[in-house]
Design a protein that fits this description.
Secreted protein, 1 helix, signal
């Protein structure tokens, strides 16, 4: 039993270190994101409470997601790199 505790603690410490070392989804996308005519360079995170109709030009190297909610929650429509999107229902965009 005394040997089990250090092994378990070692495993937990390793898991925490690995999870902190892996970059999360909040890292910035390379390029530009244009939302309703406003340009964001190397965007990251959630762009909230956007006015409808929403116009998205994805000039980044990654996919961005358009949500109907104002806070980047719920179902989303993907806009691929180099793609554009326009809708009356979108209110937030997640990079």
């Amino acid at each position: 039993m005394r040997r089990l505790v250090p092994q378990v603690l070692g495993t937990l410490v390793t898991a925490v270190v690995v999870s902190l070392a892996v970059p999360g989804s909040a890292s910035a996308a390379s390029g530009e994101l244009v939302l309703n005519g406003r340009t964001f360079t190397n965007p990251s995170g959630c762009y909230r409470n956007l006015d409808a109709p929403l116009s998205v030009q994805n000039r980044t190297r990654g996919v961005v997601f358009v949500h109907n909610s104002a806070d980047c929650t719920g179902p989303a429509r993907a806009v691929p790199a180099g793609g554009t999107f326009a809708a009356t229902s979108g209110h937030s965009v997640r990079v």
